[in-house]
Structure formats: C-alpha cells, structure tokens
Specification:
Helix content: 40-55%
Low-confidence stretches: 1-8, 286-296, 438-443
Distance between the termini: 73 Å
Largest sheet: 8 strands, antiparallel
Order of helices and strands: EEHHHHHHHHHEEEHHHHEEEEEEEHEH
Radius of gyration: 28 Å
Strand content: 15-25%
Number of helices: 15
C-alpha cells in the first residue's frame, strides 16, 4: 500500500525512529553537558573558532535539503554501531582523565554522529554522510598546528624580504630589518584563516560539485590557498610598514589589512571554483522506493526505544567509571621545598643570577631555585600537579617555558638530546632563550634550558606520552601526580653549556626524584 508514492510502513516508522533519535541525542548532550558547554565557551572566547556557532544550523539545513530522499528509506537500527560508540566513550574517558579538551569534544561530537546510524541505520547515515561529517567542524581543534605554521610564516617572510633586497637579521621568530623589529606571533600563524577556509570550502564543494574528485580537489585548494596567502599577507604587512616608515600596517590596522586580504583571496577562490560547478542531480524518484512493505508491527516502537536505550548505555558508562576513579583520589594538598644542598657540592644560591621562571600555571606546589658548585650555576624549576582538571593541568597550551607575551625572555631555538638519567637514557627537550634588552643588541643574555616531564616517576619529554601515562596511572588507581622539571644555565659567549646541565642532572636526578616522590606522598 502506498501513500503519496511512499511505502505506508516507512511513513509510519519515521516518527518512532525520529523520536528515539531525539531522545538519544538529548541524553548524550545531557550526560556530556560539561563538554558541550566547554565547546561553546571556546567558540565564544576564541576568534579562531567563532565560525562554529553556525555549524549546527548549517547541519540542520543540509539534513532538511535531503529530507525527501531520506524519507524513502526505512529506518532500521544498526546494532553493530554500539561497539564503536562504546569505544568512543572510552576515548572521552581517557581525554577527561587527562583534561584534554580536544579529545573529549571530538569524542562528544563523534557520539552524536554515531547515534544516527545506531538508531536510523547505515543506509540513512550514508544518505546524510556530508551533514554528519560537517558537524565535526564544530570541534575547536587545530591550534596544535600553530607553532609549525608560525615557523613557516617566519621562513617565508624572511626569505621574501631578502629576495626583495632588504637585509634581515633573524633570531627565532623575531627578525630585524633596517626600519624596525618584527615578530611572528600566534595571530600571524594563519590558523584562523585556514580553519575558516576549509570549513567554508568543504561546504562550497559539497553544494557546487557532484564528483568526488572535484570536491576533493577544491577542499585541497581551500587548505593550500590560505596557508600561502597568509605567507604573502605577512610579507606584505612588513613591506607596507617598512615603506611607510612604520606608520601603516602596525597596531590594529595590521589585523584589519590581514582580514581584508584574506577575504579578497577567499572570494577569488570561490569565483574561480564556481566556473567548474556541476548541476545538482535530479531528486530520486519517489515511485522507485526499494523498501519492502513489511507488515506493520507495534514491536517496531519497542525496537527503536531499545536502540535509544542502548545508545545511552554505550555512551553513558564512562560517568560511573569517572566517579569510581575520583573516589580513590588522594587529597589535593601537596608540599615541596627547595633543598639547601644537592649532590656533588651543589649548594643553594641566593639570590639567583637570573630571575627566569617558566610559565606553568596553577601548580599544586613548586620550587624555583638556583644551585652552584663554585664554578657553575644552574637554575632548577619543579612544577608539581595533583588533581588535574581543565583549569589545573601539567600539559596545556598555556604551560610553556616562555609565554608569547613575555617581555623579559623569548625562545629563539628548540631541540632535543638524549641524557642518561637514573638507569636509562631519556630524551630531553632543549631550548635557547634570549633576554630582551632596551637597545635591541644581539649581546643580550641567553639561557640554555632543558625540560622533561615526571609522571608518577616515569620520565618523558613528549606532551602526548605524558597524557597517556597520566591516563593509564589514573585508570590503575595510582593518581595523577605529575611534574615538570626545568633546569637552565647561562650560555657563555664562547660556546654551548650542555655539559653543565648534564653534569647537574646526572648528579642530582635521584635527589630531584626523591623530592617529587616526597611531594607525592604529602597529604
């Protein structure tokens, strides 16, 4: 029997299926409300992700465009999707234990997306593939690329200036030309341009092309164009400032010129891309539905209700696990004090020669002291963390050796090296810092710095490994006590000082580890 050229059973099933989907989606949002709020907070706070506010409405509009084709399909729960749903919920738990917003938010959106095939079926999900994919643009992720893009921007700008005949003296992300000093900061990385371009470019490709090849090519172009355009934008801003005697392209108009240039480039990209637009295919014939007219059964309502219940069960179990883990956590209080002496004649030196302090926020306890053996002086910073959450955690984008707005120090070089610590050889991050001075002289003081993470006694220099170790220890009920170890010393004019830092660390790591273990045991 047909109604409006659609199978009667399909028409009858859709209200039950959509109600079950709405209940499941509402339940997931309610269970992970704190994650959803954190996402919206980032949208509001960060100009890089402000575009995410329009992503959910666009997704709803894209689904509405497909409503006639989707209505021809019979919704049928895909029970096999419950397995990846439970796995994604585990991913959320691991991200929450280590307070990684990008992981918890990506898992949250993935659970919303997977709820569609779990309740409506794989065929319906395939028909809505692009709208479901587009929802991932609501996840505020991508800022981890910022340091790399800043380096690329500095490389291109310096090279272009030299090709233009302008002498350049570069020091890390800072460079000096005859008319003034310039620095590549976060706003110069071009990440916000890139994310906005790929988001809009993906939508443009979906709406204007039908072939997968054309869509893929345009998305690739929407990725490459803003990257290269940002390089030229940075170069042009420096040139405008140079040629105008630093009266133009500085301050607020610096950013205005950047957005105007980006807007023109993206508009040209769309105008050119529209030349190869393909017409939309004709709507599917509603008289050619392939759905069998199975007997109507009241049990279908129960099937969709069970599907919604199973989705909520597969996604909601991490909350119970999190409560159980938190119940075994140690008290948040921790104490730690700088020892007056360390091994092999290293004595506490007061006051220290340098007032350097790494930018690690909201520590549970910390030590910042300098030690001397009569010939060398080495500074030591220990930042200890316990009961880590989204506002207090060891590994975060705000915990760095030098903040981007630091007026006293700037990082000019980074690297790594292997150092024997304890019973094993461990990779350590290295950095060179330059102290700012009023004259801009290249004779400013410099520090050689080593950094490593201590995760419940396990050493690593990797942010990602530190997060994994922390999650594993918490799952094992051993807590999340962690610390950063930073040692630094002045770089002499005649060469490197890795030997001084290595001598200090090899002689004193046991004492440092004992100090951190003592802080871990403190209550």
């Amino acid at each position: 029997m047909m109604v409006g050229s659609q199978p009667l059973n399909s028409v009858r099933h859709w209200p039950k299926a959509l109600l079950a989907l709405a209940v499941a989606l509402f339940g997931v949002v309610l269970v992970y409300w704190s994650t959803a709020v954190a996402m919206v907070t980032i949208w509001y706070r960060s100009e890089t992700f402000t575009h995410a506010f329009v992503v959910p409405p666009i997704v709803l509009w894209l689904v509405w465009r497909r409503r006639h084709d989707v209505a021809l399909l019979r919704p049928k729960p895909a029970w096999v999707v419950l397995i990846p749903l439970a796995a994604v919920a585990l991913m959320w738990l691991l991200g929450d234990l280590t307070a990684v917003n990008s992981v918890t938010q990506l898992a949250f959106v993935t659970m919303l997306v997977l709820a569609v095939p779990a309740i409506l079926g794989l065929q319906v999900a395939y028909a809505l593939l692009f709208p479901l994919f587009f929802l991932f643009f609501a996840v505020p992720i991508g800022e981890f690329l910022m340091p790399l893009f800043m380096v690329w921007t500095a490389d291109f700008t310096v090279a272009a200036l030299r090709l233009s005949g302008i002498p350049v003296l570069r020091d890390g992300l800072q460079f000096v030309i005859p008319t003034g000093s310039w620095s590549v900061v976060e706003a110069c990385s071009g990440i916000r341009y890139l994310i906005a371009s790929v988001t809009v470019g993906s939508l443009f490709a979906h709406l204007n092309y039908q072939s997968a090849q054309r869509r893929a090519v345009f998305v690739l172009v929407s990725f490459l164009v803003p990257v290269v355009a940002n390089w030229f934008r940075a170069y042009m801003i420096v040139m405008v400032g140079h040629l105008s005697g630093n009266t133009l392209a500085v301050g607020v108009d610096h950013l205005i010129y950047g957005w105007v240039f980006f807007g023109v480039v993206i508009m040209l990209m769309f105008v050119i891309g529209a030349r190869w637009a393909e017409p939309e295919p004709l709507p599917l014939s509603r008289s050619k539905s392939s759905q069998a007219s199975a007997p109507e059964s009241a049990a279908k309502a129960l099937v969709f209700a069970l599907a919604a219940l199973f989705v909520l069960s597969a996604t909601g179990w991490p909350l119970g696990a999190r409560l159980a883990i938190d119940a075994t956590a140690a008290p948040s209080k921790a104490t730690m004090a700088a020892p007056t002496s360390l091994g092999k004649g290293w004595q506490l030196k007061t006051p220290p020669t340098h007032d350097f302090k790494p930018s690690f926020e909201n520590t549970s306890a910390e030590v910042n002291a300098a030690y001397s053996n009569g010939q060398q002086e080495v500074g030591m910073y220990l930042g200890f963390y316990r009961h880590q959450d989204y506002s207090r955690k060891l590994v975060s984008s705000s915990n760095v050796l030098v903040a981007s707005n630091d007026r006293a120090w700037s990082r000019v070089a980074s690297g790594s090296r292997n150092v024997p610590l304890g019973a094993a050889t461990t990779a350590i991050r290295t950095a060179e810092l330059r102290q700012a001075d009023a004259t801009g002289s290249d004779q400013a003081d410099r520090l050689m710095v080593w950094q490593i993470y201590w995760i419940n006694g396990t050493l690593t220099s990797s942010d990602y490994a530190a997060k994994v170790y922390s999650a594993v220890y918490r799952l094992l009920g051993k807590g999340d006590d962690s610390a950063v170890i930073v040692v630094y010393t002045e770089k002499p004019r005649n060469g490197a000082v890795d030997a001084s830092l290595e001598a200090f660390m090899t002689a004193n790591y046991s004492a440092i580890d004992a100090l951190l273990q003592q802080a871990k045991a403190s209550r």
